[in-house]
Every structure is written in C-alpha cells, then in structure tokens.
Amino acid sequence: MRFFWSLLFFSTFFALTSQAETTRLCGIRIEGSEKIEFSDTEHDWLCGSAKSPAWQNMPNSQRILFLKGFLQSRGYHQSTFTTTADSLNVELGPLSTLQSLEVHNAPAQWNWRKRRYVKNRPFTPATLDEITNWARRRLQEHGHPCPRVDAQALVLEEKFDLTVQPGPAYHFGAIITVGEEDLNPAILDRFSAFFPGAPFDIRLLEITSNRVLQEDLYLSTYYDITCTAKGEVEIVRRMIPAKPRLLTFGLGFDSEGGALFRSTLKQARLNETADNLEASLFTSLLEQTLTGKHRHYFSSDLTSRLHLLTSAVIKRESESSYEAMTYQLGTSLAFGWEALPYSGMAQLGPLLERTDVMRGPEPYQIDALRIAGEINLTSHLYEYFLTNPQDGWSVTLNASSQVQGALSKDNIHRVTLRHQVIWNLNEWDPPFLILGWRGWAGTFLLPDGLHDSPDIPVTQRFFLGGDADLRGFARKQLPSSDNGFLTVLYQGLELRASDILPYNLQPLIFVDAAKAGILAAELDSAIYYSPGVGLRWGSPIGTIRGTVGRGFVVDRDPSSIDPGYQFFISFGKEF
Amino acid sequence: MKIFKNTLLIASAVLSFLVAVMVAAVVIIWFYPSLIITENNIKKALTYAPAQLYVQWEKLDVTFENLRWNEKRVLLNSADLCVEYKPQLSTCVPTVKIDVSFAVQGFKPVLTNLGELSLHISHLDLQLPKKTEPTEPTSLLPDLRLPSFASLFPRALDLKKLGQLNITLDQFRLLSPEKPPLQATARLQRNNSAPGEQVDFSITAQASQENSFTATLMAQGILNPQSLTVQGRTSVTTSSFKIQTPLDLAWAEVLTLKARPEFQVKIEKLTEKFRPQVALTWSQSRLELRAGPASSKKIWLGGELRLSDCYIVSALHVEKGFPSEARLNCVLAAKPRKKIQNLHTVETRLSADVRLRTQGAGDAEVLTVSGSAGLEGETAFLTGTLSAQGEAEIADLSSEAKLAKAVFDLTANLKIPDFTVWKDLFEKTPYAIPAPLHVLKGEVLLQAEAHLPDLKSPLSATAQLQTRLASKTQKLWTQTEVTVKTSGPMPKPVGMHVTVQSTLEDIRLEAPPLRLEPPPQALPDKRFVLKAEPTIQQLPAAKASSALKDKLPFALTWTVGVKTAQPIQILSSLLPQNIPVAMDLHIEDSGLMKGTVAVQSFPFEIFRKKAVVKNVDLIFHANSHVPELSGQINYANPEVDIRILLLGSLEKPRIEFESDPPLNRQQIVSVLLFNKSLDELNEEEVNSTASMSRAMSDGAFGLFSLLFLSSTPIQSVSYNPVTKSYTARVRLDDSTTLSMGSDFSEERQFTVRRRLGGPWSIRTELRQTDERPDVVLTLLEWLKRF
User: Fold this and answer.
1) Mean pLDDT of the region B746-764
2) What is the rounded average pLDDT of the residues A501-511?
3) Per-residue pLDDT for A546 more than 60?
4) Are B762 and A206 an interchain contact pair (Cβ–Cβ within 8 Å)?
5) Which of A186, A446, B589, B590 could be bridged to A450 by S-S, CB 3.0 to 4.6 A?
6) Which pLDDT score is estimated for B136?
7) How buried is residue A178: exposed, middle or buried, by Cβ count under 10 Å (0-12/13-18/19+)?
8) Which H or E element spans position B31?
9) Which residue, A492, A474, A478, A468, is CA-closest to A524?
10) Model confidence at B748, in pLDDT bands (50, 70, 90)?
C-alpha cells in the first residue's frame, strides 16, 4: 500500500513538474516547457497595434519570422511552426544552453580556456555578444588594440565558436590630447601607467585615467582608440576639467575603529605645474588625524613626477595600551617612475616629530628629527584590481633614522618592509580561488650593545593584533606589556573563493602567523598564529568583510596573554 | 584409253557408293535420330565447343517421333540445364519441356506445331558489352510512326499450331558496365490451351534498377494476327514519383491506350497525388495524348489548382516519322478556398503550335522549327497575354545537330488589377505579402519583350514593371526597367548582361511600432546556425559570388540601379514627423555597391530640444564593404549654435561636435543634455556629460539608441567603458524616472571613484602608513567642487 501511494505521489509530481506550458496570444499558441512573457513591443509586432494600421493583421509567415527572433533571444532555436485555419501553433523545442566555447587563432599569451561561466549559460545572442566583447577585451589587454572577433553559435552542439583576428601587436606611441587645455597636457603624462614603446594593454589606459581622477585635476579623462582601415592605431586622450577646489566627506566602518570619518579639502591647480594643497581630517574611535600636504612640482619637465612634498600631521591615538599625540612636520623629495609591470615611488627627507604620551609607557615626551625615506613598488595589476583584489603585488620599504645629537641621544634606525601579493590561482577568468599573501617586518637598528632605547616613543614601536595582521587577536593586543615590540615578523595567507555562493558572497579562510621581539633585531621564541574563516560581500556600494579567528601562542611566557576568538567586520577594507 | 575407262568406272562406282552411303546415313539419321543424337554424344560434342561455353544438365532427354516421312516431332525434356557463355550469358533452367513438330518443305524446316513450351528459368544473366560508336550515323529526329499490329505480326507464326505455353523466369539480370543492373522476373502463360486463331495469355512481370525505378505489370491479353489487346495494371516508382494505373491497350491499325495513372509526387516535404485520365492514340500518321483533369489542394494552400483539357496532338511526317506538326493546349484553373471579392474560379489557357520541316538528307538534312505559344486569361488576379513566335533551322541532324538559323519574338502584357487579391491568395503560404506592404491596394503592370532577329545578333529583352499601390497612410509607386542583352552568337552566347533600373517615384511606408524601450530582436541572428559552416574568413573572397557564375555556360554580368524621384517618407510612432530618405544606389555583379542613402533634412527633437537633422548620409564606396557615415544635426539656442557631426562608418559610428562660439566637446554635450554650460552643472550632471561624451566616443550609443534617448529628458547617464554598456535615467514626469540602457547588470566597474548618483560616490584608496600594514579603504563619499 505504501508503495502504491509513493508511486502515485512521484508520478503526480513528475507529471506536474514536466507539464507543458501554453502561451496564447492573438491566434498564436506556443507549447513548451515554460510560458513566454513577451514585451509590449514584441506583443505589438505579433498582434498589431492600433497606432500602426499598416502593421495589423500580419501574415503568419511574417509572424513566424519575428517569433524566431524573439524565441532565439530567449534560447529557443529549434522551434517548429505549423499553421491551421485558426491559429499559428508553435512547439518551442528544447531550450538551448551553452555547453562549450572554442576560440580559433587566439594569440599564445591569452589562455582563453581559462574562461569560466560558459556551461549552462543561456544560448542567446546577448550571451554571444558578451562572450564576443570579453574576447575582444582580452585581446586588447594582450597587446592588440584593434582585434576582430567573428562569432558563430552552433545550436546542435550548443557551442560558441569564435574566430579572432588579433591584428598587429601595438606598442604605445604618441598620444593626442583633445579637450580643454588649461593645463599643459604634459602634466597628464605624469600619471601615465605606460610609456612609449611599452606593449599595449587597455588596462594601462584606464589606470592612467584613474590616477588623473585621483588627483582631482579632471572630472573625466578617457582614451579613445581609433582603428583605421589601414591598420593604424590612434589613441586620443579626452578630458573634462574639474573645478580646482574639492570638498569631500567620507564615511566608513570597521569593528576596530568603529565608524570612520574623513573630510578633505583639496585645492588642485595651484599653478601651471598643477601643484596641490590638501587638508584632511580622519577620525575613528581609535585615531584622529589632521593632515596638511603640499606638493610642489618644480622640475621644468612637466612629465616628471619629481616633486617636493611638505606635510604637517597632528595625530591622536587611543589604543588599549597607550594614548598619545603626535606632531609631525616634514618635507621630502619624492619621485616616481613607471616600468613595464609596475610603478615605483620613492621619497626621502627630514621629518621633525614630537610625541606626547598621555597614557602608556615612558617616555612621555619625545622630540625627534629623523630622515625618513620610503620606496614603494606596486604592480599595475594590483592597482587595477584595487577595488576587487585578484592579482598583483605591492612592496614598500620604509626607513627612518635619528642621528645622535640631532634631538636624539642615540642613533636609532627603524626599518619596515611591507608586502602584499595576490594570486589568481590557475588564472581562471573570472577568478575562482584567490590567494593572498601579506606580511610585514620591522625592526630597530640601535648602536652596538643596545637592545632598546628610551628615545623610541610608543607610537613608533610595533604592536600586533587586529584586522591588519593577526586576526585571532584583538587590535594591538600583543605584546601583553604596553611597551610594544622592537622587532616583528608577520606573514598572513588568505584563500578566498570567488563566486561559489550566490549574492556575491565569497567565503575565505586564512592563517596569520608572527614572531616578535621586545628587543631590537631579536625575535623571541613565542610564535603567534591565528587561523580563521571569513566572508566577503562585494555589495553594490562597497566591500563588507567579516572574519572570525582564533589566536594561538606557542612557547609563550606564562604571564603572556590568553588568546581567544576574535571577530572583525569592516566596510571597504580588503586583504 | 582402256585404263582411263577402267579408272573412270572405278571412280564412279566409289563415288556412287559414297553417295549411297551418305544418303543412307542421312535417311537413317532422319528416321532414327536417336542413334546419333544422344545425351552422351551431345556431351562429347560439347568438348569441342569453345572454352567459354559451358553446358551441364542433370537430365537431358531427347525423343524423336516420326509423324510423316517428312515431319518429325521432337520432345525435349531436361532438368537443371545450365548454360554459361562467359561473360555474356549465364542461365539455369530447372525444367524444360518442349514439344515441337517440324516438317521439311522445300529443303527448309518449317514449324508445324508447338505443342508445348514450358520453361522454368531460375536465373538468366546477360552481360552487355561496353558501348561502341555506332557504325552508321542515325538522324536525331525520331521516327515515331507506329505501324499496324498486323504488319508486325510474324506471318510464319501460326497461332493454331501453338499449344501449351508456360514460361517462368525467376530472376533476370541485365548487367551493364555503365549502369546498375536491371533485374526482372516474369511469367507468361497461355490461358486457353486448345489451339485456335487467338491466344489468351496472362503475363506477370516485375523489373527494377537500383536508384532508378521499380515497375510491375499484371495483365491479361488476347493475341491474334490482326490485333493485340491487353488489360491489366502497371505501376512505376522512382525516387520522385510513383504511378499506378489500370491499363487498357488495344493495337490493331491504331494503338489506343487508356490509363488512369495515380501519380504520387514528392516536393520537399509535400506529397501530392494526382489521378488524371490519360488517353494515347498512336498510329502511322498521328500521335495524340490527352490528359486531365488533375487537381491538387496541397500545392497552393489558398485553394485548389486544376489542370483540365490538356492535349498534345502531333501529325507525323509521312516519310520520316518525326512530329511535323504539334499542338498543345492546356487549361489551368485556380479555385480559391475562400471567395475573394468576385473571384470564383480562375482559368488561364496555354496554347502552343510547333511545326517542323526538313529539307535534304543525310549530312545535308536541315530541320526548320517554327511555332507560337500563348497564355490567355481574364481573371480577377491576373489579366494579360503572353505570346511567343519563333523559327529555327537545325542542320547536320545525323551527327551533331547545329543550329543554323533562329528568329524569336516574345511579348508579354500582364497586369495584376487588384493587389489585395494576391495578398489574400498568398496569405496562408510562405510567400505571403509582408507587413507593411500587405495593406496596399492598387495595380501592378508588367510589359516584356524579347527579340532575336538572327543567330549572329544578340538576344535582347526588355521589361517594364510598374506598381501603383497605396493605402490610407502608405504609398508605393515605382517604375522598374530591365534590359537583358547577350553577347556573342547564339545559341552559345559568351556573355549575358542584365541591367535593372528602378525608380522609386513616390513611397511612403510605416515603420514598425516602437516604444521607449530597447527594440526586440526583429530577425533571427545569423550567427546562430544548426551546425558548423565556414566563417567569412575561411571562404575565399569571391567564392560565393562566383558559385552561380560557375554553373552558367556564359559570363553573366548585371547591374542594378535604384533611385528615388522624391524622398521616401518613413512614418514612425516615436517621431511626430516623417523621416525623408533619398536613395541613389548602383550595385554590380561583383557585389559591391556604390551610391548614397541619404536621410534628408527634417525637424527633430534632441533631448527635448528642437533641432534640425540637416542630413545623415550613408555613402557606399565601390572599393569598400562598409558604408561611410556622414551626417549633421543642428541645434541652436540664443547663446550657441551646435552642430552634431555623425562620422565614421556604419560599423563604427563616431560623433563629433562643433559650435559657434567654439566650445569643447564636453561643454557642447552639457548644453545638449541639460541646457547649461559646464560651469553650471552639478556633480551628477557633470558626470552624465562625461559619460555621455565617452559613450559616444566609444560607439556604445548606436544611432538607434541615440534616437531613443534623444527624444527623452535625460536625468543622468552612467557608462562602463569596460563593457561598453550604459545606463540612462530619464525623467518621464516629476515623480517618475525610468532606467534604460544596454546593460542592467550590477557589475562593478574598475574605478577608484564610482558615482552613485547626485553628489554621492564610493571612493577606494590604498591607505599606507608607517605604523600599520597597507590597507585598502573604501568610503562612501559626498563631494562638492567649487
């Protein structure tokens, strides 16, 4: 009996789920696996419109032609049509879904087989257009500004067949600038991510446009690529100038600092060389910073990135281990350059600093005169994928030195090295698994025999813990004492799955590990590490990340901290 | 002398003895043939036969009976008699029974009685040799004279002497090196075994040839020296048709054949059956074939097509037998399923006369062909006349026929008096008149002439087609002239040139209904095919166009010209005014087109501002497949005159801007979109201006979408240069906005500042500090420039 009822249930279920759907309109009857919803215009074309008398009472042969187009746009390519005296009957036929993609004549450097999201896509002209545009875009990223892509969709095989003609490989040459020339166009070359002779990559044009926008010199800068019949390529830069002053108010959030607020007042185009002056206020629960910067481009070569950067900073930090005010005034010579896969920036100059510690370890007030220098190398891909990290790297070496006698009792050198490397594992397109590796190391170099110095303010010392490094520990939880570390080595790995979940949710797992030392150039035996999991959501307005990590300490001092679980959530932060 | 005499005596005696022995032997053999003609002797005799001949049998029994001194009866019985004569013949006869009597009359054997002829042939294979050239040339003109049956009946055959007749052939194969084998089976049996003046017989036969035909015959007949009558059924099936028919044939002085064949014809997926009555009368002097009626309701879905009263009558040449005069007459009738106006049944009569005359003989024989044809009909959907007259001389009929002379005239005057009748007739067929032409009423006229004065002159033909069609809102008045001329002597011209010149005199057409939304996919996307086809790049450039040329025995060239006498008016539901389009195009057989399609000046609203389209020209150059685009739209307000230039090609249109006083591109776009200068725009408007400008540069706006958007008040435009997709927000009224564009996906674009609308944006930056690792930070930002 039970068997009978089960059989009845399942057969009814399958009958209902596989029931044919019928769509009826103005003498057309469409049988298929789904009901077809026609747009108003499609309805007019099939059934006629009172506003267009010449398009009423169309013959069936014409309605069949239109229906073929409409159904094709929905993935039905094998519909059959029969006419009776009363109606036009349509059997929808099978719904085609894309099963495979083949690209012919692709250049070797473009591995089109890494394309994902091919199988089971709707087999429609819109999908074919998207795939064709994707192929064209990829060819433009691999040195071919004027590619030609011919596409064919094979219905029985459910396959897209693309034949590409990449065209000749192109290297960047002269750029024509069109637009309001209140500024010398050479200034725009200052921000170029490419240089004459570099292989063409359309992303470099977009990076350049964004750099210009970041400077707030222009509202819009974009590049037109014109491909002539003779095979020549012309790149034209077009611009809309911006008003010179910009006032912004920005809002962010993370669980460390709570709400983040920043306000900026910027005056660009101070002179013909596009010097700029910027004042900004950044506040969170933990940090409040008022910054003023002036960039002065003094070189006669307007394309040069050589400039004098003068800055004044007033910062208040309120951490669990200390509370301090820092006053900085400095000027440095800054220079930038462009190489094939990366851009570089270097700066060097004196920095005058006073630190007042209101709460925390001694010393409570320190004045210092340092020479600070920094070199940063950032790959173009890192810059390009800034809003959606999936590839690229960035390395920064920072060094500052206090010289004995210049507001300092000792020679104190502080060196930090920071890096971030992101890999798109197996180079899927779009990415499937993204591996990130970040780390930083820092130490103090003191005179012989010294392992610590009272002239090192707490704000200069190293702390571990928080969303930026060890995620299994609270912000700046390490060390347990308030004195901070003088040597730190931190490395973190994060593996993120791109799109295995709906709604753009991306799960991730991570492990952070660090060693540190309370003495300069020495690492203690303790190992700190924190594995964890998290979720990243690429919302329409920005990235929201949440992580849960568990801290562990190996070979720890009995008096050191007892780690536990840490939860972080942030808006806008990336790995 | 004595010796001579003795010698002569001895010789005579010997000779006489020899003769006597021979006579005695002949007499003995005649009266006792079984002494010599025995199975063993026959076997021994066969050993001297040629090597290709092979005969064997299971049983061979020959019995002789003396009926009279000069008449003998031979009874032959054999079992499993097989004869092979390689490679021409191979047969096996399981049963042979022959009872034949013959007499020697005047030293010649004469058949006196065929008491029984029973043959059961299990297989008979004949191998035809390869064709060789005929030893004697024959005339190409067929000799169709059919003599009387009596003249063909063998006089020596006395039916009274014919007894039992039973011939069965289980398998016959005729093998030929050029064609597939012809296979057949047959059975012929005499029904009445008693001798008499006539023989009743029945015959059953089947023949077939692979990939060619299959035929069957079942009939009974009566044969006598004066006539032959056969009644039965036959069928013939080929790949394209199938005929089954009863047969009623009578052949005495004249052969008459009546049949009612049932044709089954396959045309693509359509199968139609016909059952006309056919009557053939054939004699020494005349050949007449009548057919009809036959009708079909499937070929023309609009109703019934009927062929009635169709006959061909031909008088045969007295001496040579070819058809010297032939007359054709057929009536074609169409009866629509649905009564259309005053149209009931439509009849059109086709008639033709052909006369053939010959002069001379052998290689000097010349054939002259003359004739005329006519097509007449007075109907509601087609009126007119079609007549053809011609004369040709064909020489050297015995070897290769050569056309020596030809004169030809063709005249056609056809008129469609009411176009709506044709629209109704073809409405349910694949050839239905499409919208918006299907509402037109009026007449269509066709006049055509073709003339060939002689073989040395080219064939020339002209045709004029005139349409006078109109409806309440539309008009289609055209005049088209076609000229055809051959080059080189007929009948093998070396070339043919076709010139078509079409003048669009007055045309007004309605565009399909459109709304403020992306238009639907009107036609199937040709990129979608069922299975792989060579892409355009894989095909040689001229292969497709030369395919037709390769099939023709002469070079075909053509030109087509289309020109408007006044601009075509396009009516659209989206625009209050008509769009005037002028055309002057010239297309040649190379496929390249040159000329211009020009949208002419008309008032226009662009972004809710009154403007004027000065022109939009598509210029086709002979050396390019892609038409050049050239156009200008003028907009003026009290402060600035703006010219929007459409440049580039149809594949990649480009939009440029000019103004008086001179403004840059973005300033012009800001005036067009928002009627403000760039300085007066708020942040969102500025970004819309930038997006619009960039999208135009990238060609993301096709002309069609620009037309859409230009008739709306734009609130904002955002553009993604990576995907070349845009989103435009248009304000329908104070409270309603509509988003439309080419891509509605939520894909995030690469940019450090992404506009959300108004003064809001998302800004992403890399925050680098000495104390902390680098952090990518995103802030929701409000900004203002001043």
Assistant:
1) 63
2) 91
3) yes
4) no
5) A446
6) 57
7) middle
8) helix B2-31
9) A478
10) very low
Distance (Å, whole) CA A312 – CA A325:
13
Q: CB-CB: which of A41, A388, A440 is closest to B514?
A: A41
pLDDT(B328) > 90: no
Q: Greater confidence, A379 or B546?
A: A379
Distance CA A55, CA A40 (A): 14
ipTM score here?
0.83
Q: Do A220 and B782 touch (CB under 8 A)?
A: no
Task: Please indicate if any CB of chain A lies within 8 Å of the CB of B385.
Answer: no
Q: Which of B529, B530, B776 sits opposite A574 (nearest CB)?
A: B776
A-B contacts at Cβ under 8 angstroms:
281
Max CA distance (Å), chain A: 106
| CB atoms A243 and B527 under 8 Å | no
pLDDT by residue (tens digit) across A400-431? 998 877 777 778 899 999 999 999 999 998 99
**Do B722 and A77 lie within an 8 Å CB cutoff?**
no
Q: Looking at residue A199, what is its pLDDT? A: 93
Could you tell me if B368 and B392 are in contact, meaning their C-beta atoms sit under 8 angstroms apart? yes
Of chain B residues 755-784, which have a CB less than 8 A from chain A?
756, 762-766, 768, 770-784
pLDDT score recorded for residue B731: 61
Q: How many CB atoms lie within 10 A of CB A562?
A: 8
User: In sequence order, what DSSP letters do the residues of B519-561 get, joined into one string?
Assistant: PP--S--TTEESS----TTTS-TTHHHHHHHHHSSSEEEEEEE
DSSP A449: T
Taking the C-alpha atoms of residue B326 and residue A122, their distance in angstroms, rounded to an integer, is: 65
Residues from chain B that touch A386, judged by Cβ atoms under 8 A, are 752, 764-766, 776
Q: Which residues contact B199 (CB under 8 A, 6 or more apart)?
A: B159, B162, B165, B190, B192, B222, B223, B224
* Residue B68 neighbours by CB distance under 10 Å: 10
Q: Report yes or no: A288 at the B interface, CB cutoff 8 Å.
A: no
Q: Minimal CA–CA distance to B222: which of B203, B246, B244, B245? A: B203
Cα nearest neighbour of A130 on chain B: B723
User: Is the pLDDT at A7 greater than 80, yes or no?
Assistant: no
3-state DSSP assignment of residue A236? strand
